[in-house]
Amino acid sequence: MRILLADDDNRFGPVLRNELEAENYYVDLVSNGYEAVLRVIDGNKYDVVLLDIRMPLLDGRCALSIIKRLDPEMPVITFSGGAGKQEINDSLRLGAVKCLSKPFEIKELKYHIDSLCLRDQSAGRAQPGKTLT
C-alpha cells in the first residue's frame, strides 16, 4: 500500500513514516501541503493520503480541497495536535474520511488505513501501491 504523508513536524513525521514502513507500507513523506499537492499533480498514485491540518505554505484543509478536486475518490485522513472543532469539521466537510488527534496510536491509524484498503477492494477500485503481507 502506498501512502503520502504530509507533516511539518520534523520529529513526528519521520517517526510516523518509520512506524508505517515497519508495517509494510510504502510512505512518501513531505513537509507541507504544497508538496503534497505537487506529488498528486505529478501523477504519483497513492492508496491513501495522510495530512496534518496545520502546516506551512498550504495547510491540510487547503491541500485536502485541492487533492479531492484532482481525485475525488482519493481517501484522505487528516490529523492535528491542536486543531479545534471548526478545523476538524472543515476537514470532514471537505472530504476527509477521518480526522485523528495527535498523538494517536499507530494501531488506530493502521486500522483506518486497512479499512480503506478493504473498502476500495470491495468497491473494485484499483490498488496502485503495495499490499500488506
* Inertia-based shape: globular
Task: Going across the biggest sheet, name each strand in turn.
Answer: 2-1-3-4-5
CATH evolutionary superfamily: Response regulator
Number of helices: 5
Class per helix and strand makeup: alpha/beta
Point out poorly predicted stretches. Answer: 125-133
Compute the number of strand runs: 5
Share of helical residues: 40-55%
Write the layout of secondary structure elements.
Layout: E1 2-6, H1 12-22, E2 26-30, H2 33-41, E3 48-52, H3 60-70, E4 76-80, H4 85-93, E5 98-101, H5 106-123
Parallel strand pairs: 1-2, 1-3, 3-4, 4-5
Helix pairs in contact: 2-3
Tell me what you see in this structure.
- This protein is an alpha/beta fold.
- The chain has one domain (2-123): Response regulator (Rossmann fold), CATH 3.40.50.2300.
- It has five helices and five strands.
- The N and C termini lie close together (10 Å).
- The model is unreliable at 125-133 (pLDDT under 50).
List keywords for this structure.
133 residues, 18% strand, 5 helices, Rossmann fold, alpha/beta
What would a concise description of this structure say?
The protein is α/β, with parallel strands linked by helices. The chain has helices spanning 12-22, 33-41, 60-70, 85-93, 106-123, and strands spanning 2-6, 26-30, 48-52, 76-80, 98-101. It has a single domain, classed as Rossmann fold (3-Layer(aba) Sandwich).
